[in-house]
Amino acid sequence: MGGIRGTVTPPPYGCGVRLLHTSDWHLGRLFHRASLLDEQERALARLVELVEDLGVEVVLIAGDLYDRAIPPADAVELFDRTLMQLQRLGARVVAISGNHDSAVRVGYADRLLEQLGVTVRGELARTGEPVVVAATDGGPPLHVYPIPYLDPLATAHHAGRHAPPGPAVEAEQLPFVEPQVDEPAGGRRRFTHHDAMAWAMGRVRASVDAAPGCRSVVVAHTFLTGGNPSESERDLTVGHVEQVRLDVFDGIDYVALGHLHRRQGFDGGRVAYSGTPLRYSFSEAGSTPSVRVVDLDVDGGLRIDDVALGVGRGLHTLTGTLDELLTDARHADVGDGWVRAVLTDRTLPLQAMARLQQRFPNAVELRHEPAGATASADDALAAGEVRAADPFDLTRRFLEEQRGVALDAEEHDVLAAALDAARAGSAS
After folding, report:
1. pTM of this prediction?
2. Sequence-separated (6 or more) residues with CB below 8 Å from residue 238
3. Nearest to 280 by CA among 101, 102, 45, 67
4. Which listed residue, 204, 304, 334, 344, has the most CB atoms within 10 A of its CB?
C-alpha cells in the first residue's frame, strides 16, 4: 500500500478491476458559516479527472453525500452533474446514504438509475442485494454490496419483521424482536450499531456464498472500533455503542467505509476510510484530502494508492496578541486560507474579529486565551449560595471565569463603583 501520490498509472489488462473509493462529500456544508460549494465543485471536478485519467471502472461513494437531510438546491445540482459526468465516462457508480443524508430522498430513483449504471442506495430492505459488475480483466465478476447507514432502531424493526437471523447473526445472539429503547433489568441488551451491521453482513455473506468465486466489495457508513475521528463528524450516539468491530467484515475482499473524515486503513488496508475530499474542521489541518484507488486482482489481492486531490484552502491556527497577529511577517504565507485566531491579550480587544479580517479575509474563528491566565477555579455555587452571595463577589467571580484572569486593583475599584452606582439608582 502506497502513500499519498499525485499520479497513478492505469492497470494493464488482466491486472485487476480498478476502483476509486471516496466518501463524506457533505455537499452544501458551511465552514463556520462560509460556503464551501466552490471548493467542493473543484474537488469533484478533480475526482472526475482522475476517473478518466486512471481508467477507473467503479466509483464507490461511502455516504454523507450531502451535509443535511434537505440539502440546498445548488448542492443537489452539483451532485447530479457529477453523477452525469462519471456515467458518461463509463464508470459504474455505487453510492450510499450516510447519517447526514435522508435515505428516502437520496435513494428515491435507485432502481431507475441502476439501468444507467448508477446506484444510489438508501433503502434498508435491499441490504445484501449486490451490484454485479462484469469483469474486464478475465477474472470473476465483482459483487459490490451497498449498505446504507444503519440506524439501530430502524434496523432492529426491519430485521425482526423481515429476516431470520443468519449464521453471523446467531453468533452474536442478536435480539430480532421489538427492540428495547432502554435496557430492562435482567432483560435483553440494547440493539447496537454493531448488531445492525452484523445483520447486514449476514445478508451479504449469504449472497457471496450463493456466488462462489466472485470478488466482493462492501460499501458502508459506520464508526469502526479503533478509528480516529475528528471534530467535524456528527456523533452517532452516546458512549461507544455506535462502534462496529473489524471482524464483522471478515471474508470480504475490500471494504470501503465512510463517516470518519481522516484517511485510515485497517487489516493491511483491506478495510479503509478514504477521508474527505476537503478538510472540514481545524482538527484536520495535518491531513491531505485524497481519494483511494484500489486495484482488485483476479484472486482478490489488493494494490492501493491514496491520491491527493490538491484542492481546498489551507487551515491555519494563529496564536498571539492581536497586534502580533496583525504585524508578524511570519503569517504572510496564510494567503486565502481559513484562519482560527487564538488571542492571548489580557483583555479581548474591541472589534478583534473585524480587525483580523482586514489582514486575513478568511478568519472564521476567534478564541480568547489570555497568556498566563490565573483565573479562579472556585467550585460552582449552589442555587442557595448564589442567592446569599454578596453582589460584588458574585459579579467578580463571573467576570474572572469569563475572562480567564483575576481582576487587578483598578478593575476591582471600577466594579465596586459601578455596583454602588447601581444600588444608588435603584434606591432613588
Report:
1. 0.80
2. none
3. 67
4. 204
Q: Provide the grid cell at 247.
A: 471482524
Chain centroid, CA 319 distance in Å: 27
Which single residue is written with the C-alpha cell 479527472?
49
- HSE toward the beta carbon, residue 51, CA cutoff 13 A: 27
Give the model confidence (pLDDT) of 384-415 as tens digits.
566 667 888 888 887 776 666 788 888 888 88
Q: Which H helix or E strand runs over 154?
A: helix 152-162
For 424, phi then psi, to 5°, come to -65, -40
* Nearest partner of 226 among 240, 216, 236, 212, judged by Cα: 240
* CA distances to 68, 306, 427 from 417, in Å: 51, 64, 15
User: Mean pLDDT over residues 186-214, rounded?
Assistant: 87
CA angle 62, 257, 301 (to 5 degrees): 115
Instruction: Quote the CA–CA distance of 415 and 178 in Å, as a whole number.
Output: 61
Residue 373 lies in a domain: no
- State the greatest distance between any 2 C-alpha atoms of the chain, in Å, as a whole number: 95
The CA distance from 391 to 421, in Å, is 13
Please indicate, yes or no, whether residues 275 and 323 belong to a single structural domain of this protein: no
315-320: strand order across its sheet: 315-320, 338-343, 363-368
Domain that holds residue 130: 4-308
316, 286 Cβ separation under 8 angstroms: no
In a shared domain, residues 22 and 151: yes
